[in-house]
Amino acid sequence: MAEEKSLNFIEEIIEADLANGKYASILTRFPPEPNGYLHIGHAKSICLNFGLAINYGGKTNLRFDDTNPVTEDTEYVDSIKEDIKWLGFTWANEFYASDYFEQLYQFAITLIKKGLAYVDDSSSEQIAAQKGTPTQPGIENEYRARTIEENLQLFADMRAGKYKDGEKVLRAKIDMASPNMHLRDPLLYRIKHAHHHRTGDAWCIYPMYDFAHGQSDSIENITHSICTLEFIPHRPLYDWCIEQLGIFPSHQYEFARLNLTYTVMSKRRLLQLVNEKYVSGWDDPRMPTISGMRRRGFTAWSIREFCDKIGVAKRENLIDVGLLEFCVREDLNKTALRRMVVLDPLKVVITNYPEGQTEIVTSENNPEDADGGTREIPFCRELYIEQEDFMEVPSKKYFRLAPGQMVRLKSAYIIKCESVVKDAAGTITEVHCVYLPESKSGDDTSGIHVKGTLHWVSALHAVHAEVRLYDRLFKVENLNAAEGDFKDYINPDSLTILPAAYAEPALKAAKFEERYQFLRKGYFAMDKESTPEKLVFNRTVTLRDNWAKAQK
RNA sequence: UGCCCAAUAGUAUAAUGGUAGUACAACAGAUUUUGGUUCUGUCUGUCUAAGUUCGAAUCUUGGUUGGGCAACCA
Questions:
Q1: What is the pLDDT of residue A1?
Q2: Does nucleic acid strand B have an atom less than 7 angstroms from the CB of A272?
Q3: For chain A, how big is the Rg over CA atoms in Å?
Q4: Is A198 a catalytic residue?
Q5: CB of A359 within 8 A of CB of A378?
Q6: In this model, does residue A408 exceed pLDDT 70?
Q7: Which residues are within 8 A (CB) of A113 and not within 5 positions of it... i.e. 6 or more apart?
Q8: A205, A159 in Cβ contact below 8 A?
């Protein structure tokens, strides 16, 4: 069977480069700035960069773009490395732009000597004003005419710490009238008397992104430098620096960043959610961060699969979060252990079952996995079922429990509702049923077929657990198109804590790395706050629910 | 009143001058001791106008629409 290979535009470029001998092998890089945690948008870039290298027999470097000491921190370095590893990727080298500071400084001197860079004493306001606007050309100032010798001396003095922050900058001398704003004498170096997370106080001048990124790519011999669309206008500058410096010609290619419905994807906004306590931290299970999703119970496979399914192109996109949910369900359906947990309990008394008697029923760990084995579940006279699985006055097509109606208790017996018990307020407190002894699972001679099967937990043996349910963090699909402050759209019901759900005893042995399907309620993972005394589970995602959908 | 990028179904993404396909979503049905899973089927699309061509989603030009470009951020 001939395989259909359809390539994205970057794969096409790489195949062409490899086919015509431009490169013998490829080298990509993932270049995060260590000033925040990685999110699902970064996962797209990670899967792309590492995936390309894997598919075409190349390598990928991890390079921290740490050129702005005031916002960067080793806490972020550590989390980024952990997230990439967890996603399942291995970098060839761990590099830092700060490793290249001396080299970059020499590159700057090269430009000065070629008359292509100058020290400017203007303030940031003056520089901005002199830049003009997209529709009006900028103007050249007096510092632009400085001699090479003077620039060399001034730049050395900048490095030596003779000036205060903002007093001077080094700029490229390109074209103040360029229709591309980035070519209007862009800043190369600025003075920052700040402590750097790796170089400490060795430097008081730091290169700007445009004078660090492309050169770092070149130093590492990166063949394909892949970034997002907003860097398209930087490409002429990227190429200009490499050409003027005469160094290895890395090439930049741009793809459209990921946008997801009902969430935000900028580090600035995510940081705000953390700092202003809208969420409990970067790894809050509602966050679209890798660490948040991991805590929520997402699997690395599901994230990789998602990134594969969304594709890579140059058009702005807004991906339905439903696709992410599909991917995680697809994985968890095959791997999650089935367990029964009643989230919103209603007591059921089996009036014809002997008091004090307990029997053990067995149930498969995973019907999708023939080798998954079984577990034992205690059954007795008093049980809990979900409130929503009983209706005193059933609606049409409701085939759960109702007076006179029969249902199967999963892996146990068929029961029939005989009566209800109510308190003074008229609220149902107990449902009384009879069971059919000949209907036991695996040994059913009753000949009765019921449409509904319910999950249940023995009241005598139930284990208490806290269950945390999550909904989307925002109420609107497209936060980028929403007017005003994005925080106005936060969903107040994004977290529901059920402090006292009833779980079957097997869950006492729950493990962090295992995933569970609480029958009919969704997929769950144990939270990091869980203890043997107090189990805590996060709902990763609900099951598909055609019944609930039909009710709307 | 500049420059750059993009436009295929509800959402994404293929088709690289020759049958518009796939996934998710939606809808209908079958199976089911999870209203889950699985299976089957259905619906919906080339922004627009002109041109090139035997033939255009694809090439050209104009238009329209969306996005980006001025931080001592990356």
A1: 33
A2: no
A3: 31
A4: no
A5: yes
A6: yes
A7: A148, A152
A8: yes
Cα–Cα distance for residue pair A34/A69, rounded to 1 Å: 10
Active-site residue, from A190, A267, A338, A339: A267
CB A196 within 8 A of CB A98: yes
Structure tokens at A233: 């206008």
Dihedral angle computed from the Cα positions of residues A382, A388, A394 and A395, in that order, rounded to the nearest 10 degrees: -160
Report whether A188 contacts A170 (CB < 8 A): yes
Interatomic separation, CA of residue A218 and C1' of nucleotide B74, rounded (Å): 18
- Using the structure block, give the residue that is written with the tokens 């892996």: A411
pLDDT at position A2 over 50:
no
8 A C-beta contact, residue A342 and residue A457? yes
Selecting among A81, A131, A144, A257, the annotated active-site residue is: A257
Q: Which of A547, A452, A541, A455 is nearest to A501 (CA)?
A: A455
Rounded to whole angstroms, the maximal C-alpha distance in chain A is 102
Could you give the percent of chain A with pLDDT greater than 90?
98
Burial of A445 (0-12, 13-18, 19+ CB in 10 A): exposed
Cα A441 from Cα A408, distance rounded (Å)? 9
Burial class (CB in 10 A: 0-12, 13-18, 19+), A213: buried
pLDDT of res. A452: 96
Of A residues 461-500, those with CB within 7 angstroms of nucleic strand B are 481
- Sign of the alpha-carbon dihedral angle for A214, A217, A221, A225: negative
- Return the residue matching tokens 């790894």: A283
- Give A90-130 as a 3 state SS string: CCCCEEEHHHHHHHHHHHHHHHHHCCCEEEECCCHHHHHHH
Q: CA A312 to CA A306: how far, in whole Å?
A: 12
3-state secondary structure of A89: coil
- The count of C-alpha atoms lying within 13 angstroms of the C-alpha of A387, restricted to the half-sphere facing its C-beta, is 7
The pLDDT of residue A459 is 98
Mean pLDDT, chain A, rounded, equals: 97
Alpha-carbon gap, residue A169 to A424, rounded angstroms: 79
User: What is the per-residue pLDDT across A335-394, written as a single tens digit (0 to 9) for each?
Assistant: 999 999 999 999 999 999 999 999 999 999 999 999 999 999 999 999 999 999 999 999
Residue given tokens 């023939």 in the structure block: A370
* pLDDT bucket at A4, cuts 50 / 70 / 90: low
